Amino acid sequence: MFQVMKRLRLTQPVRFCSALSNNSTAATSPIQPAEPDQLYSKLEIELRGVDPAVLKSYTWFATTAAEHLGIELGKCWSPRKAHHERMTLLKSVHIYKKHRVQYEIRTHFRYMNFHKLTGSTLDTFLEYIERNLPEGVALQASKTELQQLPEHLQQPPEQV
Amino acid sequence: MNFLKKVLPIAETQLNMANKSALHTSAVCCRVQSGRYRITTKRDRPLTYEMANPPHFIGHRKTWNSWNTSTLKDGLRPSQTAIEDVFIRKFITGTWHALVCSEIIIKRQHNTIRIAAIIRQAISPRKMYFLIGYTEELLSYWMQCPVTLEFQTVADKKDVVFKYI
Amino acid sequence: MATNLTRLLESSIRSTNAAAVQSSMRLFSNQQQQHQPEDDDEEFRVLNLRTIRQQARRREFKKEAVQPPRTKRMAVDQDWSAVWSGPRSFHPASVPLPLRQGYTERGAAAPSKYANAELMKIPNFLHLTPPAIRQQCEAIKKFCTPWPKGLETEAKWKRTFPLEVVTSDYCHSLPTIRNPEARRVKITLKLSDLQFDAHAKDKFLRLVGERFDRETGLLTFVTDRCPTRKQNYDYALYLLTACYHESFVTEPWEASKSEADMEQYLFERNQAKRSAEAILNWNASREEKVSPPSGYAESVEQLINEGENEYNIAKYKEEVLKLLKIAI
C-alpha cells in the first residue's frame, strides 16, 4: 500500500493546484484531529476541454474512483452543444466581401456532482482526481461547505 | 478599503485586456493555402498523415498538436502559451536538426510540459540521450517548469510517410 | 557497343603515341616523365590537397542494432500498472495492443501504431485502468472519513449547519497556481434561521436589498472585492453581522414616520379603524365601547396590501356583513 502511494508521488511530479484554502492538517493526521473536520454537502466539478471523448473517459475515471472511495454520486451531465467562439474573416486577402471563412474554437463542458463529503474525504478525492487530470482539460471544483451560525448571530443583540 | 475600491477596477480591466485577444496583429493572408499541399506531376511528394489532412479536418480526422487550457473559454494567458509553443517548436527542430519526422506535439498538464515527436534513428543513442537531457534542461530553465521529452524513433523517414501526391 | 569499341581503340592508339613521344623527350625532365602516364586522357589534372590516406577514411555511419519492441518480451499476466505507471504519451513499443488510428480512403487499413503521431497526440488513460484505479483507491482510502450519522438528509443538517459557504478551486495547465476567480466566496442562509422582531426584520430586508430572494427565502452574499479568499470570506461574514446588528438599531428619526412613508397598510393606525369604531359605538356610552373584530381588521389589511381580487373582496364583504350584523 505504501509502495503504491510512493509511486503515485514519484510518477507525477506536478504541483497540486488547489488554491488558497487548505485543511491539509485533517488529511495528513486523521488520528488526532486538532479541530473538527469540515463538512461539505456538495462538490460540483466542471470540466472543460476540446475533445468530448477525453472528458467522457475522465468522467468515467472520476466516478469509478468515487465509487471505490464510497462517495455519494450525484448528477453527471454535459450540455448537448459545445460553446463555439467564432471569428469570421475575409477569405481573400483584400476584397470580395461576400466570401468569408469562419474559424471557431469549441469548448466542451461536462459536470459532475458529489454529495456529502467530509473535509478529509474531499481533500483526498479532489487531489487524486486533480493529479490524474489529462492534458488540455480544465477543472473547476465548487465546494459547498456547511457551517454553523456564528454565536453573535444566533441570538438578537441585547444592546445596540 | 477605499484605496482598494480605486485600484481593483483598474486591475480588473487590465486583467480583462490581457485575457481577451482583442487585437490581432498576425497576417491574415495565406489562410486559404496554409496546410494544404499541391499534387506534383510525378506524384512523388511524400506526405505524413498530418500533412495529408488539411486544417479543417482538425478535430475530425486529426487532432491538435498543442494541448493546453489556454485556448478554452476563459483560459488564462493564451498569448504567452502560444508564443512559448512556437519557441519550443523552433528550438526542438533546431536542436534535433533534420531528425524530427513529424509535428512536435506539446502537451501541458498542470505545470509540466510534455513534448512528443517522432525522431529518425540517424544518430547514435548516446548522442540522443545527450540531446534529450540538453533539451529538457534548457527548456525547463526557460519555461520555469518541468519539461519531459517523449520521443518515438523510426528507422527511416519513409516510415512516417502516409501517401505520395 | 560499336562506338564504345572505337573509342577504346582510339585511346589505346593515343597512349602508344604518347609513349613514343615520351621516350623521345626523356632527356629534358624527370618530373615530366613521371606525370605523363597519369594524364593520358585529355582532361585537366585534379589538384588533390588531401593525401590518399585521408580520402580513404571516409566515415561510414555504423547503425547500431535497434532493440526489438518491448511488447515481445511481455508476459501475458504482467502487472500493467508497473509498465505504465503515470501519464505518458503513447509509445508503440510498450503497448501490446494491435491499435490502429487514422482516417483512410475506403478499403485501406488505418495506419498502424508504429510511427503514428495521432496516437501520440490524444491523451491516453493507460495508467488509469480499472485495476489501477481500484489499487490506488484502496491505498488512499485510509485518509477518508465517513459522513457523520444523524445528518443524512438536507433537513437534518440544515438544523445544525444553516450557513452554506461556496468556494471554488481551479486546476489549469499553467505554470502558475493562482486564478483570480478563486477569490470569490458565496455564503447562503435562510432568513428564517435568524431571529428578528418586526422592526428589525423590516430594516434588515431594506439593508440587504437585492441579496434576499423573496421566492426562496434565501439570503445570499457574494464577495469578490478582496484579493484573497480568506479576506472575502471574512468580509462576507462581516457584512452579514453588520446588517443583522444594524437592523436592531432604532434611529430617532424613525419615530417621525408619517402615514405616507409606511410600506404596509396597518389597520391599527388608519382611518378605517376609527370609522368602524364610530359605526359600532354610535350612541354608546363610554363603558360599552367595542373595538371592531380581528377578522374585519385582517380582511381590510389583506384587501389593501395584496390588492383587490375576487377572494379578498368576497371576504371583505362577508366581514362587513358580519360587522354590521346584516343577514341576507
Estimated structural class of chain A: alpha+beta
Please give the count of helices of chain B. Answer: 4
The biggest sheet of chain A amounts to: 5 strands, antiparallel
CA-based shape of chain A: elongated
Helix content of chain A: 25-40%
What order do the SSEs of chain B take from the amino end to the carboxyl end, as H and E? HEHEHEEHEE
Which segments of chain A are poorly predicted (pLDDT under 50) over 5 or more consecutive residues? 1-27
**Strand percent estimate of chain A:** 25-35%
- The fraction of residues in strands of chain B falls at 15-25%
First-to-last CA distance of chain B: 68 Å
Strand order of the largest sheet of chain B: 2-3-4-5
CATH fold group of the domain at 38-146 in chain A: Alpha-Beta Plaits
Mean pLDDT of chain B: 83
Known CATH architecture of chain B? 2-Layer Sandwich
CATH topology of chain B: GMP Synthetase, Chain A, domain 3
Describe the protein in words.
The complex is a heterotrimer of chains A (160), B (165) and C (328). Chain A has 160 residues and is of the alpha+beta class. Chain A has helices at 2-11, 24-28, 52-69, 119-131, 151-154; strands spanning 39-49, 72-77, 83-90, 100-118, 137-147. The N and C termini of chain A lie far apart (59 Å). Mean pLDDT of chain A is 79; it is low at 1-27. Chain B contains four helices and six strands; from the N terminus they run αβαβαββαββ. In chain B, α3 runs antiparallel to α4. By secondary structure, chain C is an alpha+beta fold. Among the domains of chain C are: 82-136, no CATH class; 154-170 and 180-252, Double Stranded RNA Binding Domain, CATH 3.30.160.20; 261-324, no CATH class. Chain C is built from twelve helices and four strands; from the N terminus they run αααααααββαββαααα. In chain C, a hairpin with a 4-residue loop joins β3 and β4 (218-223). Mean pLDDT of chain C is 80; it is low at 18-35. Chains in contact: A-B, A-C, B-C. At the A-C interface, α1, α3, β4, α4 and β5 of A face α6, α7, β1 and α9 of C.
